[in-house]
Amino acid sequence: MTTTFDADVAIVGYGPTGVIAALTLATHGISAVAFERDRDIYPRARAVTVNDWTMRIFQGLGVAERVEKVIDPQRALRWMTYDRTELMRIEHPPSTLGRTPRFYNIYQPTMETELRSAVQERHGDLVTVHYGSEVTGIEQDADGVTVTATTDGVSRTVRTRYAIAADGGSSVTRGRVGCTLLGDTDDVTWVVVDCHVKRWWPDRDFLTFWSDKERPVVDIALSAGNHRWEIPLRPDETPADYPTSTELWPLLQALGVSEDDVEIHQHAFYRHHVRIADTFRQGRVFLAGDAAHLMPPWAGAGMQTGMRDAHDLGWKLAGVLKGELPESWLDTYEAERRPNAAFYTGLAVGLGRVIKQEASEEELAAMNAVPENTVTPFEPPLTAPPVLAGGWLRGEQGDASVIGRMVPQPIAGDAAGRMARLDEHLGHRFVLLGDDVDPAAVLTAEEKAGWDALGAHYRAVRPKTAHTRGPEELVDLDEVVLPWMRRYGARVVAVRPDRFVAAADTHGLAVPAV
What we know:
By secondary structure, this protein is an alpha+beta fold.
């Protein structure tokens, strides 16, 4: 009997994680149906920043220029005490991933509006979104997933091949499929104060963490003329002590901010979580974003980690659904995303210790210390280029290894003289790059057969002082890619569709095992 599917993938929840899942799937030609409980975008600015890794994902999905119009470059990070002593500062180095700013400030409702509009305008034929729709059931079998949802009292059932639970930290889907959220919730309540800027004040464009044992504060410029403070309540305080904006002014005035500077337009209360699901997958249902992991805000990585989950899962699901990748590839989703979520959670917890003045002088020194004998230029973990810690990779990892690193993205030329960012030349495929050599010529017959089975392309990268020798070759116009490969002693690297290096001649060019 032939099973009829209404779409390839169901997405439960249509916040940032769900939208990026839909965009990624549709970019690869895969249909999706999304269910979102709320009719409108959540009006509060929860996330506050995106970095160049996230922007590179946006670029690949064709929405970077659109998003860039509604976000602002971030100047730097600093940790200050109330007496204006600077404890630590992280200047943002230039990005190697294709865009000059390393970090951007956002106003989440505005950015989400652009992303949702992009889905509708670019992929309306592939993505259907049901707003005001409550998912009331999800069942799966050997062939697919059945999602039941209610909209305005009317129930509908949708049949898909796979499903993504992106319905947030309080995910109902997580429990329905038998996943458990492990970890703790801090008992401290924080008030988030969102403001409209009335006038500029000195160093407003720093992301400032006010370090204090009693009142540590996050102080960040948002885009579109907005600003936010996140402030903890004391043990003897409750949200009832701050019923209106009037009661919030003493907290802001302690930071040097007055009614001449900003207008308070909303505030809310929340607690910090350090939680992760026991598994990110149950059969044909995958958890992504806050449904899979929750972290404190100190690293600015919560929303972004969810978006990266969605992107990683999206291109892999697309490959499986189109018959280009075996179903076993889906096991690499958790293998790659769990370590990354755990890394940013640990980083956020560590930075929180600094902000709350719980970190010792030794811990502070360690955070600022430059390791000896590093092959790569050292950058603090918060700003270092992304690296995969596990998953679909071949070979040892470490400071001296190119495996698991994201290839930089300079301007490159092709044989016909067209100049563009590297990703625009590579497309959404596996690509082997050779340092002034045809990568296919370096492979054994067995190795090439493995990469051919994945639809890989082979592109020599020539220095800009040389001639190209074939139509598929590239030229390293910015002189970035070839020096980067040589730093790690690599002559050939195999680059995945998400731009991470899966293999290199330094560790063997056979296709990694799934």
